[in-house]
Amino acid sequence: MDSSKQKNAAILLEVHEPTAVSHSAAAFLTHSPRDEEFANLVIVRHTYIDVYKIRSDEEGKSRLELVRTRNLFGVVESLSVLKRPRSGSLKGGRDALLLTFRDAKLTVLGWNDAVWDLEPSSLHYFESDVSLRTGRVCFPSPPFCATDPEGRCAAVIMFRHQMAILPAIEPLGSDEMGLFGDPDPSSIGERQEQSVPTASVGNSYIDNLGKVGVRDIRDAVFLHGTSEPTLLCLHDGNPSWAGNLREKKDTCCLTALSINISDKRHPKIWEVLEMPSDAYKLSATPDGGALVFTGTSVLYVNQSQKTGVILHTEGVPAPENAPPLAFDPEKENPSDTAKRYAEKYGLELAPKVSSSSFSYCDAQYKDWNIDCSCATIAWLEDAFALISFRHGKIIMLEVTKELGGLRKMVMKKVAAGPQPACITHIGSGAVFVGSRGGDSLLLACTRREGDQESVPKMKKQKIDEQIIQEKEDVLEEYLEEDLLSIYAMTDNQQSPSEVDVRVCDSIISLGAMRKIISVPSDGQEEGQQFLACCGTAENGALAIMQYGLAPDKITTVPLPGLKGVWAIESDTQTAVVLLGFENQTTKVLSGSGSLEELSDTDFSTSVGTLMAGTLGEDNQYQIHSNGMRLLKDSRLSQDLKLTDMQLDEFQQGSSIKSADAAENILLLLLTDGSAHVLEVKKSRVVYLSAIPSKFHGKAVKITAATLYHDSSGWLSVQMGQPKPGSVYVCAAYSNGDTMLWSCDHLDSGKKEAIWCSNSLSSGVDVVMPTQGEANFVTDDSVVNNRLVDIKLKLFDGFSSPILVALAESGSLFCYRLFCPMPAGPGNIRMKKVKLAVASRPEEKSKEYQSRYIHTFDRIGEHIPFTGFFIAGNMPLWLIASKGNIYAHHGLAPLSSVVLGFTSFNNENCPHGFLAVQGDGSLLIANFPPRQRMDASWPKRKLGIKSVPLDCTYYPEAKLVALIVSLPSPHAPFLPEDGQSEPHAAYSYSLAGIEGAKENHLDRHEVRIISPSTWTVLWSFPLLPGEKGISIQALHLKDHESGATVPMIAVGTSFAAGEDYPCSGRVILIEVTKQENNAWAGRMTYAREFKGPVTNVTAVEGYLLLSTGNRIETCMLKSKRVEVADANILFTLQRSAFYEGPSLITSLNVVKNFILLGDAQHSVHFLRYKDQGKQINMLSKDFGQACTKACQFLIAASSLHIVMADGEGNMWTFTYSPNDPKSWKGQKLDNWGALHVGKGVSSMLRTPVSHPLLESTRENEGIRLSDQRSKSKQGVLCCTDLGGMHMVVPLTAAEASSFSGLATRSARAISSVIPHGAGLNPSAFRRRYQKSLVSLQGAKPFDPSLSLYSQGIVDGDLFKEYLHANVGTQARVASQAGTNRESIRAICDMLEDIKLSK
């Protein structure tokens, strides 16, 4: 990196995982078909793959439980399942997953029981053979894979018509499974435990189907019921287009190829010609044949028959062709003739251009007017399927057999749900509908038997325990928080649906995020609150989010010296609250009402309480450093001193350090490093045993211990214990060992650990049991990382317990227990759960902390959640939901030091909590109402029954203005002004009657809402056909009075076809108070422009807008009208302009600097001069790029530019006029580039802060300083897949001490960490070098920077570093030429990035 590049650096972080589901499949991965009824659900979220299992709750309803999630470091283009044969010699076993990636890569993933994870069994790279491209560079269609239903082979279609065949093979041993690379040295040799066979493929071979006339393949599937694998290809033999259908139509073909794997021959066995030109998808029918989906119909095709159904009137041709359009100027104006002709014949489908498939299709369903594009299908039975179409309508399809073996297609409406991206049948009627633009749903589908009552029209079914509606003055459309809904579609003209659909579970999505803004919250003390426009159609929603969890404070009580709090419950209500102080005293408060102090109590007030709670049904306990008290029904039953407990090997002078309780068992951890187990029998404490801490004559200390009640019996079964529901002790030792002890064994005198491991404290990916007893050969890295607290807990919705451990260095470990196959007594292992926050600062105030890890149950009044709370210097919430753990930073009022925590429930704080802050104050708080914590960011989602397109915050009235699109009855366009050219008149008239048959129109309107109540205060409908594009709250200067006027500016467009000029308007809205003291809007001015107004903003008090390729400024002038209401009218007068290259897509302003993004020519950096009213170009990027979004980056006094192109590449620039390479400043300096994947839709500039790094003299490393960065604004990038990235700029001083080490570390990390699909993260990030302008990418003017010489650092790699074990971290540090502490300092800095106000 030369000197000109070293001074510029930035960090790219993924702060919110994508939530939109793009692919799904059902596969038997973690179990075989004979083990469980349901298959595993596999979903893909952009670059992530998730494996779920289906479990039943107490009510018998199917629920989703996450088994494993992985980052694949590549965008998945297709997902297929290679099934293990269910019959024959290869019967049994598990399936495999086949994933394709651009440009032509395939990964085969199988489940490895030994490490409880997906791992690649083979990788197939087809990009190295240049001849496969046949001279082409750009391929719009990505590769996709199809698999044989019998599991005999798989086919990959790539490069238009190249086919790779992968034959299925029988794995003979673990080596033939391929690349099961164990992530930790401790797991070497565990592959031999993979006794359950898994489907796998052998060496592939490639065939060019273009040689047999199969070109431009759109889709391909393997047919069912064939002796040899038969691949049916849908291809376009002679491509046409909509304007050429009179000359060429029905250009698609179906070709069936018999796959002879042994001879590597693929003869053509049958074909079907003259298929519709808009055919795009195939689906193999289980009883033979295939379905073909077109834009208006669904066809069934086999070797001897073609049939189908038409679902839209646009697929039905008119009885005869329309007469030619003839003009007679003497009788009628030509434009009027064109209008009348369009109204009469414009929506008719001429027989000359209609598909020949109409002759064999059934048109009885044409009046449904269903758009058949983007269809997905799931086969529930051999001839019974559910189809979900573009707008979410779910249709039942039944393929019946008529006389002579002919097929007939019968369809019935079932329901309407989210806009689908995929649909999958998991088994026994469970169907998963994955969506990009809404929440993904798990449905239970059952067929009706006999005559039953019809489902009421448009009846909504919801998950009632998650949606609680309050009767308040809020519009109904803003009350659908979670959008977990499915609609019945039966109507009066149709017989009742034969399928009952019920929502069982959901995956909340922020898919199709269009805009994100910052919305201040009055009650929020720290951080920012964000509002995002997301969703499509019925699933349009506003999402209120924050980067961290900010509880709702009820009150704070200052209590100097307070260091702990415990709530004792009785019948789910808090009965007593104990407060422990530093002066070794305790206050006892009543749990009801306003927490009055109790004077008459049997709890000791003269000791410092370490822990208190309930034991069994009616026993309470209080533990202090020198003993404990046991109470029954709040009355003293036993008062025990530590010296009277007759503890084994008790050392004089020792005291109780911490304690834990479960059922009727107590665990005491003493300061001498010993732990003791006690049992409560008949309201008396009985000593059971000490936890062994001496092995082979060597003594070690117990640093942390916890109790676990096996309420589900899972651990007892896996351990081979005869008594389910036992209590176990999990103890961590100072030498790094972790052991499990059974209290039943200790009671009977058996002092042998039932499970032991020496690798948990080193943070390995899989913790495996150690053979024999404790291992005392430890290295310094493990001893220095000893555990200081540990918790083991089983939550609702989890099939196995979760273990959370906190190390002395601040590392936080989270593990999930599992038992690999074949199961055996004691063969328990732990799989690491990757947390979004995996490190915390090293604790400094340990003398005040008895426990760091606290569990909580059902906090939250409306939507209760369970999980862990990590106290200490940096509070952290771990939310447990659906098998996953979500980590959230604590925000004010719970963002600093927390000494104590407990759940709390009374009438004034239902399902809340109490927390002791570092200054000794007691915080009483709760979770925000109706907020979802089980997500990357805590969020609340508000359904608005319309699609939010853009939004802005109006600070003067603390309101939000937004543009929405909502369905409404059809309305005609306004008449044209004057006479136009006939082509234009025809186009305008045709656009005006579009949707008239369906009586449907997407109407746009402007709304002003209150963010406190989310009520609509004012709305302004736009003209029919007018589309709202942009909205912005501005401060404009009134050039008549000189006053600054706050306004809301709206930019619109009006498009009426290709032959009509597109126009737009600027609408100015003034927000005023009404007589009833309520806010409302008033349109004060509107002006038309010759082009769509794509962006509106302000510069130096002027309105700045873009129309097409032109930006211009307008000055605001006022004029008072002498009428009763004395309103002020405003006008706009144009003052300056600048002609851009093609189409301006983004417009941003900082002071008088203007940044514009162009659809073809990257970014331009401009400056406005009020003197002379000029907009001058300072610099630009001379490369080509399709700019989707761009924004300024500010690092102190440095101003940078970040831009995202259509292919998902992030580019950074700087204006450097003193650099000789900048051509005296004419060319922007491109100093950074990184690939993030497709879909960046908008950017928000927001203040950020992080700890500063400083150099250390020892080992020339770096460390965190006590100071934080100032005057810095990063960029938050949202994507259309519901994810978010953050770009954090660095100053020149920060970059000098950071960039070199960070670059070397990132290179080392990418080569060491496990690659989930065999793809290197560095190869994914450097895809910007392969960007193509033809695919909406970029072509830089200068040669692309190499990955490790550009200035953007991949911060996600350092998160992977935190999840690696100690040995891997040491190896990375060695390769980077530094020490672990320096890389850890970088990680801690990234973990502590805050979005400040």
Protein described:
Residues 1-6, 173-194, 451-485, 487-495 and 774-782 have low confidence and may be disordered. The strands form 23 sheets. Strands 1, 85, 86, 87, 88, 89, 92, 93, 95 and 96 form a ten-stranded mixed sheet that branches. A six-stranded antiparallel sheet has the order 24-25-26-27-32-31, with no helix packed on it. Strands 10, 11, 12, 13 and 14 form a five-stranded antiparallel sheet that branches. The protein has eleven helices and 96 strands. The protein is mainly β. A hairpin with a 6-residue loop joins β70 and β71. The two termini are 35 Å apart. It is globular. The longest helix has 21 residues, at 1292-1312.
Which characteristics define this entry?
1397 residues; mainly beta; ten-stranded mixed β-sheet; six-stranded antiparallel β-sheet; 45% strand
What is the count of helical runs?
A: 11
Our estimate of the beta-strand percent is 35-45%
Major sheet details:
10 strands, mixed
Poorly predicted runs are 1-6, 173-194, 451-485, 487-495, 774-782
Radius of gyration over all CA atoms, rounded = 34 Å
**Structural class by secondary-structure content:** mainly beta
Helix content: under 10%
Would you spell out the secondary-structure blueprint of this structure?
Blueprint: H1 3-6, E1 9-16, E2 23-27, E3 40-45, E4 48-56, E5 62-71, E6 78-82, E7 96-101, E8 105-112, E9 117-125, E10 144-147, E11 153-158, E12 162-169, E13 200-201, E14 205-208, E15 217-222, E16 230-236, E17 252-258, E18 268-275, E19 281-284, E20 290-293, E21 297-301, E22 306-310, H2 334-345, E23 361-362, E24 376-381, E25 384-388, E26 393-401, E27 407-416, E28 420-427, E29 430-435, E30 440-447, E31 460-462, E32 485-488, E33 499-507, E34 515-518, E35 529-534, E36 541-546, E37 552-558, E38 562-570, E39 573-581, E40 586-590, E41 609-615, E42 619-624, E43 627-632, E44 635-641, E45 656-662, E46 665-670, E47 675-681, E48 684-690, E49 694-695, E50 698-699, E51 702-709, H3 714-719, E52 727-733, E53 738-742, H4 743-747, E54 755-757, E55 766-767, H5 780-783, E56 787-793, E57 802-807, E58 812-818, E59 829-832, E60 853-859, E61 865-870, E62 876-881, E63 884-889, E64 898-906, E65 909-917, E66 921-926, E67 939-943, E68 947-954, E69 959-968, H6 982-993, E70 1001-1009, E71 1016-1021, E72 1026-1037, E73 1044-1054, E74 1064-1073, ...
Parallel strand pairs: 1-95, 22-23
Antiparallel strand pairs: 1-93, 2-3, 3-4, 4-5, 6-7, 7-8, 8-9, 10-11, 11-12, 12-13, 12-14, 15-16, 16-17, 17-18, 19-20, 20-21, 21-22, 24-25, 25-26, 26-27, 27-32, 28-29, 29-30, 30-33, 31-32, 34-35, 35-36, 36-67, 37-66, 38-39, 39-40, 41-42, 42-43, 43-44, 45-46, 46-47, 47-48, 49-50, 51-52, 52-53, ...
Helix pairs in contact: 2-6, 7-9, 7-10, 9-11
